[in-house]
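Note to self: keep these together.
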Amino acid sequence: MSHPGLVTGNDFDAELLHLVAPEAWANPVPQDKYDLVVIGAGPAGLVAAVGAAGLGAGVALIEKGLLGGDCLNAGCVPSKALLAAARAAHHARSASKFGVQCGNVTVDFPLMMDRMRRLRAGLAKHDGAQRFTALGVDVFLGEGAFSGADQVTVKGAALRFRKALIATGARALVPDLPGLKEAGFHTNETIFGLTALPKHLLVIGGGPIGCEMAQAFRRFGADVTMIVRESLMPKDEPEAVSFVRQAFLREGITILENTETISVSREGEDRVLKVRSMHGESEVRGDALLVAAGRALNIEGLNLGEAGIEKEGRGLKLNDRLQTTNARVFAAGDIAGGPQFTHAADAHARAVLRNAFFFGRAKASELLVPWCTYTDPEVAQVGLTEAMAKAKGLETMTYRVEFSEMDRGVLEEEEGFLQALVIKGTDKVLGFTITGPHAGDFAGEAALLLKTTGRLSTLDGVIHPYPTLGEAFKRLGGLAMKSKFTPGLAKLFKRYFAFMR
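Structure:
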């Protein structure tokens, strides 16, 4: 069986398949009744399965595709391997500003892609069928569907359960564009199967996947044109996105924002896109096309009606405890709606285990889920953006520290900023925006503050190593403390010191 995005005959992809979709796999004989049946072996399903099995529960895990889900096979893992290679090439090309001469820098695309496949296969052992079997999970390969209120069937075998978890994830949304399917295109599920670098990559979409791949392929040496219906990264703070936009333009990426793709056709090796903007209609062409225009939930084929599970909109009807209209059945990860990130799926799975087995009251609405787009510069967000706060009717103000003003930022010639959004007149933090190198790594400290004191002034007492960009957190704390030093308080201190003389 072939899998999109994997290269037939490649040793590393063969190793991957041996781990996450072994051909000779024989499904086990089902237990009389499982404590938990999990449909979908992406991050949410895997975390729930291993967590429940570790507690001593009887667990069945069902997967119709590749264990590891989108993250391992066609998402976080391969994309970050490509971004690391792209960053290395970019640093080599820009090293002359540090007095380092690297000459003509080129990328061996087949070798770079093989590196990605090798690393991906190396990580696959953590998600492999044999590992989960060894951990006490019954792994069933095949398509699972409900056949009753407390039963799932896979390849003719009936699996009865006390609790079940739907963790079937999401896939690339393919827009209904005239000529698209006939012309041929890539999504995140197939782009990592390339073995030759396109000359000109067209990207439909300006979200995280589109932006990350656009920059990576440009740094590999391809021409890149992005066609974006609205603006780049519309969920992020506009000031942060402007840093990314300027970086893209400096690197030679063509960005067509507020532009709609009308149709796609094929002329020889070229895909020709007819687009419309405020300037009228025009054409753009390239020899490869990546569609990154959103995600669609994997809800088909589950036979939800047999289990009394209702839909709502394009997804499932869930309460705040991630419970479906069948009290026995929960949902987690992308299929549950909300933030579609691996770390969100992990948090969902842990909440489901508490709610399903320990009378927990973990609420999806109370989860603090940071996010990061791994462009260069990276953009990370923790908590509310200014637009989100405004929608809630909150009056806010911001504290901001530029990385270019930090000693480490000066020495490494780095740009970006750390910004805290607070309730006006207080130091109560609503959210952080981080733009710059390793922004995602800084998000943990921001999340910790929001989950503990929530007061920006707390950071003033945290000692950070010098010189680091992380000192920006302490500087934010200092700004918050300084704001408390009102003119009236200043006069009081002046009188105090005069008295003490």
